[in-house]
Write a structure and sequence with these properties.
The complex is a heterotrimer of chains A (480), B (263) and C (436).
Chain A lengths: L1 H10 L13 E3 L6 H10 L4 H14 L24 E3 L13 H9 L4 H6 L3 E7 L2 E5 L2 H6 L3 E4 H7 L1 H7 L10 H9 L3 E6 L8 E7 L10 E6 L4 E9 L6 E4 L2 E6 L4 E8 L11 E12 L5 E8 L4 E4 L2 E4 L5 E10 L4 E4 L2 E4 L5 E11 L3 E10 L7 E11 L4 E10 L5 E9 L3 H9 L4 H17 L4 H10 L10
Parallel strand pairs in A: 3-7, 6-8, 7-9, 8-11, 9-12, 10-13, 11-13, 12-14, 13-15, 13-16, 14-17, 15-18, 16-19, 17-20, 18-21, 19-21, 20-22, 21-23, 22-24
Antiparallel strand pairs in A: 1-2, 3-4, 5-6
Chain B lengths: L9 E10 L2 E11 L4 E5 L6 H9 L4 E10 L2 E2 L5 H6 L2 E4 L6 E5 H15 L7 H15 L9 E2 L5 H15 L3 E5 L7 H13 L6 E6 L3 H5 L4 E6 L2 E6 L1 H10 L2 H10 L4
Parallel strand pairs in B: 3-10, 3-11, 6-9, 9-10
Antiparallel strand pairs in B: 1-2, 1-4, 4-5, 7-8, 11-12
Helix pairs in contact in B: 4-5, 5-6
Chain C lengths: L3 H17 L7 H14 L15 H5 L24 E6 L2 E2 L13 E5 L9 H10 L6 H8 L3 E7 L9 E9 L5 E11 L4 E11 L2 E11 L4 E8 L3 E12 L4 E9 L1 E12 L5 E10 L4 E10 L5 E10 L4 E10 L7 E10 L5 E10 L5 E9 L3 H9 L4 H17 L5 H13 L10
Parallel strand pairs in C: 1-5, 4-6, 5-7, 6-8, 7-9, 8-10, 9-11, 10-12, 11-13, 12-14, 13-15, 14-16, 15-17, 16-18, 17-19
Antiparallel strand pairs in C: 1-2, 3-4
The chains are: A alpha/beta (480), B alpha/beta (263), C alpha/beta (436).
Chain lengths: 480, 263, 436
């Protein structure tokens, strides 16, 4: 049936971001032991307390085992084959964008995030992380006027050590899991953001991650702290060159929302997924967790996952504050041999906490798509509410869609609801569209788009556009 | 327009079609000129809906024999969306729902697909809204319906009206109404029929497939055909419909044997 | 996980395995294999994904590693209102011919004991038994193998059909003279086109582990109805069923549990021919520190099969409910239609519910839905009833009745249904302590 072919064509869109930037990089030799960590810390001129943190994490990591519980097949990672630090040369403190290597700027332009351009555009402040190092942050000055700190992690360590010491590892301790321990030991850079009391951040903050050098892993850390009554919306995008090897991306993201604060964290993840035969591609093993620390705080995760050979991530919310709110909206598309095992954990601790989970999985080719989620209502979570909706769509008969929710309830006043459905695109739906003059390809795009709509509408506008492009569907909705 | 040789819009000859190996149409002939309204009636299982689906190009329906000429085109060579772009519109008996896609967006996508095919410029959102407003009154459709997902949670009447609205927007040359009256109460039926009547034009033909005569009180046909066992066994004017109403379809069995010689 | 406790079990089991292997019933390899597997894997710890919410430590450390001594005493309960054509009584794992009644059986149904294999070799039966159960690391499966001694087989031929009769199987575990365990293997073979109904009842007294497993095979178009009733006051029961369904066959299963310390109910249904249907229904209540754990797997291996699964439970005091329901749709299982729902009402702040509905889908033209809810009783409904003069406790019972009776609605015998609903209702504490 031609429909199947068109579905395949649609899903087969080639990876557009597969170029390699030709900048000289300063990469340390592959391998990991305590001396590597000393070396990373030395190159970054870090204070002793941070080196201590890294070493503690490393010593814990060596006692842990590489986890194998998620529903994925993968190659064994040799952690001694990875280089844990790669920075574009020349490495010196940058005062302005003008000092950034023009090759690099070009790369970001190709990615559609020309940093130069960003200066003129209103709305998005960008921190760009290239391989392991943050290369440029725009708008820092403007944000500083409001008391907002938005800078690279290294800079924050130097400028705001008290904040980093207070919050680093407070949501994702290095003992949390194998990859968070590894990240804590070797993390190179990332973004830090602090929104002071009562401030509503006037623009979207954004980080663009790019893995460039071969044989490296990327281990960035993001820490966002929203003080009382503040609001921030944060975006994250990711791309990588096409390479035959599996590169490891093991990031940690920690969010802290104090009383009445709101953090919205959106990701469009488009790491290189590997080729049609399943060779190469990024292993995206990321720990993301938000702590709703204050009463009535809110953390909302939205993600569109289309890239990576393997994605393991469960952006989670610890709902500690009373009446705090956690949200998770996700679209994950897997094609060819991609595997995604993603979902969330909503830990209800405080009274009157609520959470919403909307997950849309689309499987094509031989892609395997798994939703794995936990809703955990603790004893004290009086009146907690959760609603979860997990829908899967299968395009073709060689792919798989799996749903593994875990629901644990320890409070009788809680209400937890979970629904899941699996569907394919109905032939009658396609025919109906055909009969109205719409080609099968357009019809499929439209229906997939409709399927994901609940998630897309959670994204900031510009990201929504990108996300829809990524799913090769035309934009819906400007009518009316 | 109608010169000496009157132009034919649709010319169906000896059409045989089957579904999953079961032959349903067994030599159907029909000629439709622009501006005409043809009613196709017949008992359940006579092949009415199959005929409508074959004309609109549904893949599960296999044409085994015969030809269908539409204007100067071999209709059977065209895919469903090409037929739609060429001006064939089918109002479905059971319109499907498409969750997540607003009715307005769907219609604009359809309209622009058709316009692109005809090499006309696409309609932007603002113009489209204007166009559609002018049509909503025609079928008495609440504008709110435009912003809901296509047919999702619509009542039976809303679905049928929505079909007529789409017809009005897509501006077809040949409209096929497949059992449009099923599931409608008398008021909804009247509104739908009024919509259709308002869309009657000299250059547009209708094929109205129906089991009952009551729709034909409102949409008065030029020709009435009785379909039985995959063939047209009787044709006449609108009085034939009344006759059928009085006598039902049982006479068909009695005359079936002689039907072949009857032309 | 091999612990000290496992050691004491292994020693006890080994002695029995060796003794039983002296009987020439053709099952010695199976026993030895079971012993070895148990010795190697032992009981799973809390880290095991399959046993994550089900604490076995109380059972493992208790006195159940001994075998229950022979008994002819059946724990007292009101009899189920049944109109059975046959009654099979197993006490502490032994088929009790004197207490059973097979006199009214026609030719279509054959019933016998597994222990009979000692006197009468039956390679076909041995073969069926061995192919029914996998040799894996399942602790209770390994124990069943190692201690393979007695049980029951039921065979139905397709002839002489008409209204199928009900076979009543009563498992009694009598631990009044000392703690211990009993292991029972049941086999059911339904010939093509045959029909059978089984009502299985479990009673226990004292500290016991009842370890029951069934291997079932349904021929083409066979229909098997099974109702299981776990009576109040049972101690620990593991109950596992593996059923293979051929084309067009139907398996209707309904389980009700009220008030057992620990029940683990495992069902593994495989559809191996097209057009099969399986119903898995369950209604349960738990109080005190009871644990009720339902663990189901439906393998949709071929096309055009359907399944319907509904489990509903009410948890009060410090009880715990667990539901793990896997629906596995294989690549060739097009047009599968699978519906699963799992709802729980939690009446007390110390009770807990853990739910894991799981879908694993490899075919694209399928309809699979699952839904799960956990919550308390509807306040509006409670208020409505109370405003009509019904006490809070009564109102709760009424709502619980409404909640569970939907699962039982399809039961043929209204007498049995009423009986069970009453028993479920009685197992809900009514002293107001669990009010929310």
């Amino acid at each position: 049936m031609s429909e199947a072919k068109e579905l395949q064509d649609l899903a087969d869109k080639e990876y557009e971001f597969g170029f390699v930037t030709d900048v000289e990089s300063d990469t340390i030799a592959a391998g990991l032991d305590e001396s590597t960590i000393h070396e990373i810390s030395r190159r970054k001129n870090e204070p002793d307390w941070l080196l201590e943190f890294r070493l503690k994490a490393y010593r814990h990591w060596v006692t842990m085992e590489d986890p194998c519980w998620a529903k994925v097949d993968r190659n064994v990672i040799d952690y001694q084959e990875i280089s844990y630090y790669s920075a574009p040369k020349p490495k010196k403190t940058l005062d302005s964008l003008d000092e950034v290597d023009p090759e690099l700027l070009e790369t970001f332009e190709k990615l559609g995030i020309s940093l130069d351009e960003q200066k003129r555009l209103t709305g998005v402040a960008v921190d760009a992380v290239f391989d392991s190092v943050s290369v440029a942050t725009t708008f820092s000055d403007k944000l500083a006027d409001l008391g907002i700190i938005f800078c690279s992690f290294s800079e924050a360590v130097a400028q705001h050590p008290e904040l980093i010491r207070q919050y680093l590892g407070s949501v994702v301790p290095y003992t949390d899991n194998f990859y968070s321990a590894l990240n804590a030991a070797v993390f190179s850079d990332g973004s830090f953001c602090y929104i002071p009391e009562g401030v509503r951040c006037p623009m979207e903050l954004s980080t663009y991650f790019r893995i460039n050098a071969a044989g490296t892993g990327q281990f960035e850390r993001t820490l966002i702290v929203a003080a009382e009554r503040s609001t921030v919306s944060y975006l994250e995008g990711c791309t990588a060159p096409m390479r035959d090897e599996n590169q490891l991306h093991a990031a940690v993201v920690e969010l802290v929302a104090l009383e009445d604060a709101t953090i919205k964290y959106s990701t469009v993840q488009n790491w290189y997924p590997g080729d049609a035969e399943g060779v190469g591609g990024i292993y995206n093993f990321v720990t993301k967790r938000g702590l709703c620390k204050g009463d009535r705080s809110k953390i909302s995760w939205t993600q569109v996952e289309t890239g990576s050979a393997i994605t393991w991530k469960y952006p989670s919310c610890i709902l500690l504050g009373e009446e705090s709110v956690g949200e998770f909206y996700s679209v994950a598309l897997t094609n060819n041999f991609q595997q995604a095992d993603t979902g969330t954990k909503m830990i209800h601790i405080g009274k009157g906490t609520t959470s919403t989970i909307v997950s849309k999985g689309i499987s094509a080719g031989q892609g395997q798509n798994t939703y794995r989620g936990l809703v955990d209502v603790k004893k004290g979570a009086e009146g907690a509410r959760n609603f979860s909706q997990c829908d899967s769509m299968l395009l073709g008969d060689r792919c798989g869609a799996h749903t593994f929710p875990y629901i644990e309830v320890r409070n009788p006043t809680a209400k937890v609801e979970h629904e899941a459905t699996t569907s394919k695109i109905g032939e009658d739906q396609i025919f109906y569209c055909n009969q109205r003059g719409i080609s099968t390809e357009d019809a499929v795009s439209m229906i997939v788009n409709g399927f994901c709509k609940e998630v897309f509408r959670e994204l900031p506008m510009e990201f929504a556009v990108e996300a829809q492009k990524l799913l090769a569907v035309s934009l819906e909705g400007s009518v009316g | 327009m109608s010169g000496k040789k009157e132009e034919m819009l649709l010319d169906v000859k000896d059409l045989h079609a089957s579904v999953e190996g079961t032959e349903i149409l067994r030599g159907l002939d029909l000629q439709v000129k622009p501006g005409e309204v043809h009613a196709i009636m017949g008992p359940n299982g006579s092949g009415k809906s199959t005929f409508a689906n074959v004309l609109s190009g549904r893949e599960e329906y296999q044409v085994d024999r015969g030809t269908v000429q539409y204007r100067d085109l071999d209709l059977l060579e065209l895919s469903a969306d090409e037929r739609a772009c060429e001006g064939i519109f089918m109002a479905f008996q059971y319109p499907v729902s498409i969750p997540g896609i607003s009715n307005a967006y769907f219609l604009r996508t359809a309209l622009n697909s058709v316009r692109r095919y005809r090499e006309e410029s696409e309609v932007d959102a603002v113009d489209f809204l204007e166009l559609i407003r002018s049509k909503t009154d025609l079928v008495g459709i609440d504008e709110k319906l435009l912003h809901r997902s296509v047919n999702d949670g619509f009542s039976g009447g809303e679905k049928k009206r929505n079909e007529i609205l789409q017809m009005a927007v897509l501006d077809p040359k040949l409209a096929i109404l497949d059992e449009t009256d099923s599931g409608l109460d008398i008021d909804a039926l009247r509104i739908v029929a009024e919509g259709v009547n308002a869309l009657r034009r000299e250059d547009r033909a209708f094929i109205v497939v129906t089991h009952y005569q009551r729709l034909l009180d409102h949409i008065v046909p030029d020709h009435v055909h009785v379909l039985s066992d995959g063939k047209i066994v009787r044709s006449g004017d609108k009085t034939l419909a009344h006759e059928l109403e009085r006598e039902g379809y049982s006479w068909l069995e009695a005359t079936d044997a002689s039907a072949g010689s009857n032309s | 996980m091999v612990t000290e406790a496992t050691e004491s079990w292994t020693e006890a089991v080994r002695a029995i395995t060796e003794r039983l292997n002296e009987s020439k019933d053709g099952l010695d390899e199976r026993r030895t294999g079971g012993l070895e597997r148990f010795q190697m894997h032992g009981f799973p710890g809390r880290k095991s994904e399959e046993w994550r919410y089900t604490p076995l430590s109380g059972l493992v450390d208790g006195g159940c590693h001994q075998s229950l001594s022979t008994s002819t005493s059946v724990p007292q309960h009101a009899d189920l209102p049944l109109d059975a054509i046959a009654r099979v009584v197993l006490i502490n794992g032994c088929f009790q011919e004197q207490l059973s009644d097979l006199s009214a059986l026609g030719d279509a149904i054959k019933i016998g004991s597994i222990a009979a294999l000692r006197n009468e070799s039956n390679p076909e039966m041995v073969n069926f038994l061995c192919s029914s159960f996998p040799e894996d690391d399942h602790p209770f499966g390994s124990l069943s193998d190692a201690m393979l001694d007695d049980g029951v087989f039921i065979e139905v031929s397709g002839e002489g059909s008409g209204e199928p009769g009900t076979v009543h199987v009563l498992h009694a575990f009598d631990g009044s003279t000392g703690a211990g365990s009993a292991h029972i293997t049941g086999l059911v073979r339904c010939a093509p086109g045959s029909r059978l109904k089984i009502v299985e009842e479990v009673r226990s007294t004292g500290e016991v582990l009842g370890n029951i497993r069934w291997g079932m095979s349904l021929g083409d178009d066979a229909v098997l109805d099974r109702i299981r009733v776990f009576r109040p006051g049972c101690d620990s029961v593991f109950h596992g069923t593996r059923v293979t369904q051929n084309s067009g066959s139907q398996f209707h299963d309904l389980v009700t549990c009220c008030g057992s310390n620990l029940i683990r109910n495992e069902i593994h249904a495989t559809h191996s021919g097209p057009g099969c249907h399986v119903d898995l229904l369950g209604a349960y209540v738990a109080r005190g520190k009871e644990v009720v754990d339902h663990h189901t797997t439906i393998e949709h291996a071929v096309e055009d099969c359907t399944s319907r699964e509904i489990y509903r439970g009410v948890l009060s005091e410090k009880s715990r409910g667990v539901f793990t329901g896997m629906i596995h749709v294989h690549q060739d299982a097009q047009r599968t239609d699978a519906v699963q729902s799992n709802d729980a009402i939690v009446l007390s702040r110390d009770a807990e519910m853990n739910t894991r509905p799981r879908l694993e889908i490899y075919a694209d033209d399928v309809k699979c839905t699952h839904g799960a809810t956990v919550g308390e009783l509807d306040d509006d409904a409670l208020f409505y009833l109370r405003s009509r003069g019904i006490s809070l406790d009564e109102a709760k019972k009424l709502l619980v009745r409404a909640f569970t009776s939907e699962v039982l609605a399809g039961m043929e015998s209204s007498q049995l249904r009423e009986f069970i609903i009453e028993e479920l209702q009685r197992s809900i504490p009514g002293d107001g302590e669990s009010s929310s």
